[in-house]
């Protein structure tokens, strides 16, 4: 594998309007889209305005349909196992709430699980008598596979984890968890919200039954885009939460037939311009190579952690043997929200990693809100150095 070289980085930056105006270390929130993605969306909307929505859709139908093939290629799935949705949360909720939970069923998750998913677990706990259990990380901050095995019982209905947590640079070993789930014949669900576009995601290797993804983060797609993977063998086991004539077809005045692919989880009305933008963003990433992107992201994140750790007043909070492009830290004596504001004043975007986002993990480690800086392949070593210089001046003030 050939690493992304400096000439390529400059090309990707030249193809990204925002990269010239600011330093964007909020890719875990929403990446800066490539210009080709922006232009794809805008041009489609212009054609809709000029020629009509249905007429424009008909013109681009082949390209719109190709988005499913691009998603399938990205995650090594079949196109019939893919649904296009508005966000990872929508996709996750559609399949999670489609599971036929019974009183006494158990869900196993990790301490790194995202707040929206935890709320889903609490909801079925309150309304259906479901129990959810949390596998604690070990002393090194790694997910405990042994701990998972110990929590599995005859009542375990679902294992659900977020591969990359919102407020930490660690990662969950989704492939190894998949092997355990298959061994015990347990439904397995992965939130890959922060993973797709940053890390190679292979649903066959992971062995998951369901996987949810957003477009706006590391895929560099527009906001309001995402997709859902549901393994073919599982689709009929999930009830539909919403349904229209796209998800099913009329058989007679008294009956209908649900379609036989994952698009049963979609509704007819969606933003076609954003669908094209999602496809173009995935195509852009695939042309670079996800393996190469992941190599570059790890290099930049390691560089950032190293430089941050050399600043006396800065503490890096990332745990785990394998770490990603999310870097979390705090500055001694200064509220993280103020650090974020002061960096923004210098044209540097970071985000605030709020305790509520991964409450179990944050409470366990006695962390309040911390700063989250997330790198992508179009970022540079120089940008990291500039941020660290600004942080030094903030710490002294």
TrEMBL record:
| Cofactor(s) needed for function | pyridoxal 5'-phosphate
Keyword Oxidoreductase listed? The answer is no
What UniProt keywords apply to this chain's record, in alphabetical order? Aminotransferase, Pyridoxal phosphate, Transferase
The protein's GO terms of the molecular function aspect are: transaminase activity
Iron is among the record's keywords: no
Ranges for domain Aminotransferase class V: 25-385
The entry assigns this protein to a family as follows: Belongs to the class-V pyridoxal-phosphate-dependent aminotransferase family.
Identify the PANTHER family for this entry. BLR4730 PROTEIN, CYSTEINE DESULFURASE
Kindly provide the name given to this protein in its UniProt entry.
Answer: Aminotransferase class V-fold PLP-dependent enzyme
Q: Lineage of the source organism?
A: Bacteria, Pseudomonadati, Bacteroidota, Sphingobacteriia, Sphingobacteriales
């Amino acid at each position: 594998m050939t690493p992304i070289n400096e000439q390529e980085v400059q090309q990707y930056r030249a193809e990204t309007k925002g990269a010239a105006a600011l330093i964007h270390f909020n890719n875990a929130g929403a990446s800066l889209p490539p210009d080709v993605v922006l232009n794809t969306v805008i041009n489609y909307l212009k054609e809709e305005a000029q020629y009509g929505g249905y007429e424009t859709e008909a013109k681009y139908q082949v390209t719109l349909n190709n988005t499913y093939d691009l998603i399938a290629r990205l995650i090594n799935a079949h196109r019939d196992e893919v649904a296009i949705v508005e966000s990872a949360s929508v996709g996750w909720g559609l399949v999670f709430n489609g599971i036929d939970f019974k009183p006494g069923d158990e869900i196993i998750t990790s301490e790194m699980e995202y707040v929206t998913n935890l709320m889903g677990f609490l909801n079925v706990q309150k309304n259906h008598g479901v129990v959810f259990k949390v596998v604690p990380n070990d002393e090194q901050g790694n997910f405990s596979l042994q701990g998972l095995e110990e929590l599995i019982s005859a009542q375990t209905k679902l294992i659900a984890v977020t591969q990359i947590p919102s407020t930490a640079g660690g990662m969950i070993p989704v492939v190894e968890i998949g092997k355990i789930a298959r061994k015990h014949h347990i439904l397995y669900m992965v939130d890959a919200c922060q993973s797709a576009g940053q890390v190679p995601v292979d649903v066959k290797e992971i062995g998951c039954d369901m996987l949810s993804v957003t477009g706006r983060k590391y895929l560099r797609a527009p906001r309001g885009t995402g997709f859902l993977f549901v393994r073919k063998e599982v689709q009929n086991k999930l009830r539909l939460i919403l349904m229209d004539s796209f998800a099913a077809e009329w058989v007679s005045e008294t009956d209908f037939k649900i379609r036989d692919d994952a698009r049963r989880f979609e509704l007819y009305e969606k933003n076609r311009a954003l669908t094209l933008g999602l496809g173009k963003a995935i195509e852009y990433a695939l042309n670079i190579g996800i393996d190469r992107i992941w190599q570059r992201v790890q290099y930049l994140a390691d560089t950032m952690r190293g430089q941050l750790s050399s600043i006396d007043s800065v503490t890096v909070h990332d745990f785990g043997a394998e770490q990603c492009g999310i870097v979390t830290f705090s500055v001694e004596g200064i509220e993280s929200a103020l650090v974020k504001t002061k960096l923004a004043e210098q044209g540097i975007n970071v985000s605030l990693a709020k305790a509520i986002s991964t409450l179990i993990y944050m409470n366990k480690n006695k962390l309040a809100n911390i700063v989250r800086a997330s790198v992508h392949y179009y970022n540079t070593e120089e940008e990291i150095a500039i941020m660290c210089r600004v942080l030094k001046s903030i710490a002294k003030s």
